[in-house]
Design a protein that fits this description.
Helix content: 40-55%
Distance between the termini: 115 Å
Largest sheet: 5 strands, parallel
Radius of gyration: 54 Å
Strand content: 15-25%
Number of helices: 12
Shape: elongated
């Protein structure tokens, strides 16, 4: 914007029209005082100032403007119709004017001068803006350098206080700084410490450096004073600034004691493993011998028992007819020998559970149907009713899982209440987790099978006892059994990575819950048994 200052409006108007005709914005003032007020509030590119004015003349106005920091560089063109002598022209220049024109003014010359001074002013303003920007950039760079230097001093102080060998590397790969521990393993601060000939740590580090990746690896460094090699962990990480790597910081951490301890521990573990393998082999041999022994003993024990039972029956039928007291004693003997025979058979079954055997897909539905067919006579005799859901195919050891269902169904029939027909309900659902209270899920990895009855039940406070071998909750004279059946079931379920538990109320019935995985994670692929 151009300011025209003249006390006569008829002089202002033609200048204003000429300048606006050439796309210059203009402002006017009719006195020196008014001009100074406007200069204080606005920035002007050129000021056209009349010399001869009442009050403050043009020279006084120019001198006042030169004292303003904001407007002191604004070009001033003096116009005068009276003061045309050299001394006035000189005064115009000394008071701050950049040109002095006498009236009448040639409009074309005035316009050329205004354009020139306008362009110079604009260029000067641009130059000032550039200078200010450069000054600001210099201040920022100076501040950044000071901050960087402070951080470097702080980093070096930290690295010097570390117990590890510490160093920094420039982004051109040259070592920049090392702490005092460096010189225990290297004489030169510009080269890495010497490593063992078999180590290739530095080669791997160079690959990471070229790819801008953090590095970590073991190295054996040679001590300068003893020529011994010690194990160190070398770790080098990049330091980023605005996403660009500016340097690398690294440490050598002494891990010699840990390494020696680990090697000693590994040696001990190796020896211990060998001992365990040998012991395991011995145990397998011993276990095999015990299984053979159990088979022989059970066979040899059961044979005399069979003879005792056979001859006892013969004596009872042939010689004791009518002797009720003798028959009673002999019946007790026969019953005891039968119970001992069952006990020997159950013990043999229990010992066989430690034998490794195949897991294979087993149709539990067909398996339970076969068992119910075996119990058909007992079911008819006791007028029992049985309801069964469709059971799934599960990966099991068929002979063993059959024994679980056989024991549970047999108990449900055996421990029925007097004069109450047994009711057995076999339910099945697929569940999410290996948990008794798990939610049902059609895609779950486990099945939960519940065998419920309406028998005599038991007090739930004895729940932990019923799965322990030889533990009985009922009178031996009232109900037959050896106290091994549920212990066998528990051991089989453990071997199948499953769960067995129970719920019961006395004189109302019991529920036995089985949880089995559909697929065994670590099923053995070989079988080792001679029984």
């Amino acid at each position: 914007m151009i300011l025209i200052v003249d006390d006569r409006p008829e002089n202002i108007l033609p200048l204003k029209k000429i300048l606006e005709l050439h796309n210059f914005k203009t402002d006017t003032a009719e006195s020196g005082e008014e001009a100074l007020k406007k200069v204080l509030n606005k920035t002007y590119s050129v000021i056209i100032l009349d010399v001869q004015m009442p009050g403050m003349d043009g020279f006084e106005v120019a001198e006042a403007i030169a004292g303003f920091g904001k407007a002191k560089d604004t070009p001033i063109i003096f116009l005068s119709a009276v003061n045309t002598e050299k001394k006035f022209i000189t005064k115009g220049y000394t008071s701050g004017g950049i040109d002095y024109l006498t009236k009448p003014v040639d409009p074309d010359i005035l316009l050329l001068k205004v354009k020139t001074f306008y362009r110079l002013f604009e260029q000067q303003q641009e130059l000032k803006a550039i200078q200010e920007s450069l000054r600001h950039e210099i201040d920022i760079r100076k501040h950044a350098q000071e901050e960087l230097a402070a951080r470097m001093d702080e980093l070096r102080f930290i690295l010097e206080s570390l117990p590890q060998i510490a160093f920094t590397i420039r982004n051109d790969g040259k070592i920049e700084y090392v702490n005092r521990h460096w010189f225990q393993y290297a004489a030169d601060a510009g080269a890495f410490p010497e490593t063992h000939p078999d180590d290739h740590t530095y080669k791997r580090w160079n690959e990471h450096f070229l790819n801008g990746l953090e590095f970590s690896g073991e190295a054996r460094l040679r001590q300068l004073d003893s020529d011994d090699y010690r194990y160190f962990l070398l770790k080098i990480i990049p330091v980023l600034q605005n996403g660009i790597i500016v340097r690398w910081v690294g440490t050598f951490t002494d891990i010699h004691q840990q390494k020696m301890a680990n090697e000693l521990l590994e040696h001990k573990v190796e020896l211990r493993t060998k001992e365990l393998v040998d012991k395991n082999s011995e145990l397998e041999t011993t276990n095999h011998e015990l299984q053979q022994f159990a088979w022989v003993v059970s066979h040899d024990l059961k044979e005399p028992l069979r003879k005792i039972q056979t001859f006892s029956h013969l004596i009872k039928d042939k010689y004791l007819s009518g002797n009720e007291e003798a028959i009673s004693y002999l019946d007790r003997s026969i019953s005891s020998s039968a119970r001992m025979s069952r006990l020997i058979s159950d013990l043999l079954d229990y010992s066989r559970l430690s034998v490794t055997a195949y897991f294979q897909p087993t149709d539990l539905n067909a398996l339970v149907d076969e068992l119910l067919a075996d119990f058909d006579e007992t079911i008819r005799e006791k007028k029992a009713s049985i309801r069964k859901d469709t059971l799934p195919v599960v990966e099991t050891i068929p002979s063993q899982i059959r024994q679980v269902f056989q024991n549970l169904i047999s108990n449900a029939l055996k421990f029925s209440r007097p004069d109450v027909a047994p009711v057995i309900d076999i339910r099945c659902e697929i569940i999410e987790e290996k948990n008794l209270s798990s939610l049902a899920s059609a895609e779950g990895p486990y099945c939960r099978i519940t065998i419920a009855d309406n028998g005599i039940g038991f007090d739930v406070k004895f729940l932990d006892r019923i799965f322990v071998i030889f533990q009985r909750l009922n009178n031996i004279n009232a109900y037959e059994g050896t106290g091994i059946g549920l212990a066998i079931a528990k051991k089989i379920m453990d071997k199948h990575n499953g769960i067995i538990s129970a719920r019961s109320t006395e004189n109302q019935g019991s529920e036995f819950i089985l949880i089995l995985p559909f697929v065994q994670e670590h099923a053995p692929t070989t079988i080792k048994t001679d029984i």
